[in-house]
Amino acid sequence: MSVQGGAIEDLRKSVGLRIADEPLLRSLADGLADVERLLRETVRSDVKAVHEAAIHLVEAGGKRFRPLFTLLAGQFGKENSRDVVVAAAAVELVHLATLYHDDVMDEATMRRGAQSVNARWDNTVAILTGDFLFAHASRLVADLGTDAARIIAETFGELVTGQMRETVGPVDGEDAVAHYLTVIAQKTGSLIATSGRFGGMLSSAEPEHIEALCRFGEIIGTAFQISDDVIDIASPSAESGKSQGTDLREGVKTLPMLYALADEGTDPRLVELLSGPVTEDALVTEALELLRRSSGLERARATLSDYARRARAELAALPACPARDACESVADYLVERTR
């Protein structure tokens, strides 16, 4: 199997991409290969320390969903523009930059199966490397025109606002679930929305199609996080590929937990456990068992199904084609992976 073909297979496994159309497969595979080359060229630095830190997460891989969606959105336009590849690389650089900063805030030691930059070097290097990637993403987007530059600047603002909302928490009287959904829409959905906007805009898609791709991106990005929330509780480690109860251990209250806490019928023991980080393995196991029996998990699944339905509704505005089918398959996958 070629490198490009392997990349598509990885995407099928990680984001449920189902594509039977061979021309679309080849186009996406070629586009992703171009994105990978551009990523490596862009983060290259003559300063060894800068280059090593910047290339670290690029080489660690990842889903590459944001550039993939940019390329898919580019299929709805009237022209095949190299600018779509540039935009795809730029949104991935922005995503990588946020990961460097997130690892500092979360005091993470691992990222994508590799040692995090803050653990391998230190927090200062990680923060500066994230800034370095933001700078290069801005440089790439600057070549795409003033509209694209404005859009990426607005997206930076959304990302930071979402992080600030999460850090500060809901204000007095604010609904915790609504607050959480707003946070993940800004932290995750906003950049995926921009991916769709860039792909459609830079391939000269119709304005109504660009807006539909943007709305789909925000909804599906939020759904990805909800899906991960459910899997972190519901799936055994052997199935999910990561340690169970990660959010519990970090003291992060995800959607199933918030729903459980909002239900007056929830087991008081679960409420007690969710009052802070759960660090002991036995207590994590106990909390997971109680969460699986709570109403919170099923309510989160129902919310996920609703987001998937809304995402598919946005796609209905797009012309029928293999690219639209591929987007629909991702929406279906996010629900299926949590069952």
Structural class by secondary-structure content: mainly alpha
Q: Strand order of the main beta sheet, please?
A: 1-2
Q: Which CATH-level-2 architecture of the largest domain? A: Orthogonal Bundle
Radius of gyration, in angstroms, nearest whole number:
20 Å
CATH level 1 name of the largest domain: Mainly Alpha
How many domains?
Answer: 2
Quantity of strands, as a count: 2
Order of helices and strands: HHHHHEEHHHHHHHHHHHH
Mean pLDDT: 90
Strand content: under 5%
Sheet of most strands? 2 strands, antiparallel
Termini gap: 31 Å
- Put simply, the count of helices is 17
The parts where pLDDT drops under 50 for at least 5 residues are none
Protein name: Polyprenyl synthetase family protein
Keywords: Magnesium, Metal-binding, Transferase
Cofactor: Mg(2+)
Family: Belongs to the FPP/GGPP synthase family.
How would you describe this protein?
The chain is an all-alpha fold and 339 residues long. It contains 17 helices and 2 strands. The chain is globular. The mean pLDDT is 90.
Short description:
With 339 residues, the chain is an all-alpha fold. Helix content is 76%, strand content 1%. It has helices at 3-15, 22-43, 48-60, 65-73, 82-106, 117-120, 123-142, 146-168, 176-202, 207-234, 237-240, 246-250, 255-262, 268-273, 281-293, 295-315, 322-336, and strands at residues 110-111, 114-115.
